[in-house]
Amino acid sequence: MPKNILWFKEISLDDIPIVGGKGANLGEMYRSGIPVPNGFVVTTQAYFHFLETNRLVSLIQNILKITNPDDPNSLLEASKKIKTMIKTSPMDPIITKEIIESYRQLARSYNNKKLAVAVRSSATAEDTADASFAGQQETFLNVIGEDKVVRRVRDCWASLFTPRSIFYRFKKHIDHFKIGVAVPIQKLVQSDVSGIIFTINPVTNNKSQIVIEAIFGLGEYIVQGIVTPDQFIVDKTNWSLIQKTHIPQEIKLIKSQQETKEVKIPKKDQNKPKLTDELVLELARISQKLHNYYTKPQDIEFAIEKGKIYIVQTRPITTVINLQKILDNQSRIDQTADLTGEPASPGLATGKIIIINSPKEINRVGQNQILVTTMTTPDFVPAMKKVNGIITDKGGQTSHAAIVSRELGVPCVVGAKIATKFFKEGETVTIDGTTGKIWNGNLIANNTFHLPGKPINFQPNLKTATKIYVNLGEPDLAKEMAQKNCDGIGLLRAEFMIANIGIHPKRIIAEHKEKNYIDKLAKDMVKFCQAFSPRPVIYRATDFKTNEYRFLKYGSLYEPIEPNPLMGFRGASRYITSPDVFMMELEAIKQVRNKYGYKNLWLMIPFVRTPDELFKVKKIIAAAGLLRSPSFKLFMMAEIPSNVIILDKFIDVGIDGISIGSNDLTMLTLGLDRDNAEVANNFNEMDPAVLWSLRHLIKKAHKRKILVGICGQAPSNYPDLVEKLVKWGIDSISVSPDAIDRTREIVAWAEKRKIRQKHP
Fold first, then answer.
1. Domains of the chain, with CATH numbers?
2. Above 60 in pLDDT, residue 760?
3. What value does the mean pLDDT take over residues 382-396?
4. Can 156 be counted among the known catalytic residues?
5. Do 372 and 420 contact (CB within 8 A), yes or no?
6. Which pTM does this prediction carry?
């Protein structure tokens, strides 16, 4: 017989019918070791028992039979009646007792009789692969005390019949009584920072990107769209932070004696970034573990308290759309935008503006309009179904309303700041939910569009003399990336594969599990080599910094805390100090080449400070039985000023080529850390000193007849730099996956121009 109460440790994904999607995910994560605050779930058994004993089903059915889902007033009236019935009906004393005893047990486990908990709704059709039910049911934060917990459980049951929930089920043709609602109750994290993570880009569907949005305080203000969050985009092909957008924040939600309250953030703190780059990457790695565990893209909620990360929810992303089809049919408008916000739901739309200041006004919304509001809360869902597009002043890509707009297929731009004041009601506008741009007038009719992010004359099979490589790190992307118009992998990062193993390599050695580690690493390498064969795959040996190694399990046991890891214990110096760790990587490479027969795997050594370091590393490589040959080339990263100044001496040691790491070279040339917010604005890969170094490296490498390429982020970001590199004669350019075609096109143009200049 189903229980009324189940603890997280008892729950798995098989329990969705009794604990709902949210409850099942919390249990699954807790059992798998993800940092989840402990708790329990009041099951659907208790909910259905409540309906049955109070004979509420027939009464609710009678109300819903006469409800018009397209009439906001009708929905509101039905909701009010049903919720009142639920909230005023008595709860079985046995269930009440079980909830109270479970709350007491949870409080004792945290040594806090007045433990603050989060009480959440978890519908049985919620947070599954088929429906997000984003924001449909209630969540109550900072609930303290037995009586309040019991009352909030009943409030969660009632929230299954909010106007937006009723509307959603009507439109999705979901039986109102085939859905149950469970109630997870877990320790509340007093969030200094909270936010949402998407393990693919929710707007572009780019599988190689992780999008993180964060705010100060409790997370409700981000999901409600009240606060526009900071945004961070991580490229998981090379595990780098490729974009960050900082938004000042004036208010936040915190827990208090009265459950929660809004407070003003002191002016001196309003402009502070919500997350360090270090925390962003740690969140990205945790989220990718969840992505891999569930084998599908995830929408994840997190909270950070005193520097510690907690995952409070995960659900499948339900809004994966055929973006390419949208872009093929309606692409970019080549005209300066009148207003720009953040893209939230892709596609072009045009219509007359209707400005709404409150959900109470949604009955004013008609067909084919553009809805403009301060923030799009889930209460707007009935109106969102009608309109052509949505614009908001506040909110981010991961707000529940943005999720719903993507699910409905309605183009949406969020965080436009002044849209409600900038536009007048009745004006015609055009919005692009793919780029976040907004224009006055109807610009869709009689326009010719081209694919965004690609040159107008894009040619899918274009060839160039300069090799175009791709930067990768995730094995599951290998097959997809191999289909693109690239000449191989110019930077295969080890870090992603090792992060997936998840355990510090020294611990592996201590437990004598080297073989398992080597086999796993080799199998991941094979995925790349097999997909790209016979094209070269240049494997860059591990370049974890100490702070990154500490993220791995047992990492704190083996890694020092360095004041500046960028210039600390990393790269070649690690291989010399810990040859046993390096040897596991070399054995994996040998296995790929000898056991599996893929001779297209080459090796690249990062962060080599001196020629002597290179010499010692080469001795270790030779001792492993890996010798330079036509089928096994050895590259060195050029990312330190010493590499530029005395490149001849490094070449004398014996290498086949260099690959310029523009990120580190820029930082070390300009004497700054781009992760330091105080000086990050001065990071400039187009600085004259950096450009001089790039040109010098290319000319010197060619003079010594070795290969020279570049694999940093700069070519992906600066088309002008690509032209310069071609002009200077670079052999290869390795870029992020989204920049392959664009870079190839620029290179082709630059090569033609170079020829014309030589032979006018």
1. 5-187 (3.30.1490.20), 193-316 (3.30.470.20), 328-440 (3.50.30.10), 467-758 (3.20.20.60)
2. no
3. 85
4. no
5. yes
6. 0.53
